[in-house]
Amino acid sequence: MRPEAMARHQGGMWPWLMQRVTAVLVFVTMAIHLTATHLLNIGDLSYDNIAGRLAHSGMALVDFTLLAAVVFHALNGVRMVWLDYSLAGSGRRVVDVAFWIIGVGVFFYGAWALWPWITG
Q1: What CA–CA distances, in Å, run from 14 to 59, 60, 68, 70?
Q2: Does domain 24-119 bear CATH number 1.25.40?
Q3: Which of 17, 69, 98, 117 is positioned for an S-S bond with 25, CB 3.0–4.6 A?
């Protein structure tokens, strides 16, 4: 791969790589989530059923991984589109910090929403 293809001002190698990694994680965890929720529990989606599924540590890990992967993948994609409009220098840093703050906030909000089922 050409060095200029991964230049920092064009987004950087790590965000590019993490976009691919999180795409795979989203695909795999979404398949597990949908299978466990909709195929294995046909006609039995209730609060107790969801609580029982999330009480299992493996499914809780799948849902937390799905949440983190979707948040990172989405915000990194928006960041890349934003960078395509030639935002450079300190403006790029502000966007990076803002997206990290938004991402961490959204992840903790999602984790907070899942927590009562996991601990209940």
Answers
A1: 28, 27, 16, 17
A2: no
A3: 69
